Amino acid sequence: MHHVTENSYHALDALGTTVCALAELAEIIPSEDRYASLVRVLAERLEVDMETIRRQVYELWQFVPELPDDEPGACTALPEKEDVAV
Hints:
The chain is mainly alpha-helical. It has helices at 3-28, 36-61. Helix 1 (3-28) packs antiparallel against helix 2. The radius of gyration is 18 Å and the shape is elongated.
């Protein structure tokens, strides 16, 4: 993975995990709960939006130029994955 795309990859991955967690939560909320339908609709919309964003970002990554490994100043160490609070 290119060092320029590494941070955005981790951010998308964290966002995807959060969206999945909300979808799982929506499934276990009893249907009698007054907010159950709202949470389900929001979870479904977020899942669709997340997949759209992911596809568009992946398409944009094709325009990020690759750096040769032997280029001076090339980043060889991968950045730390940032923790994202849920």
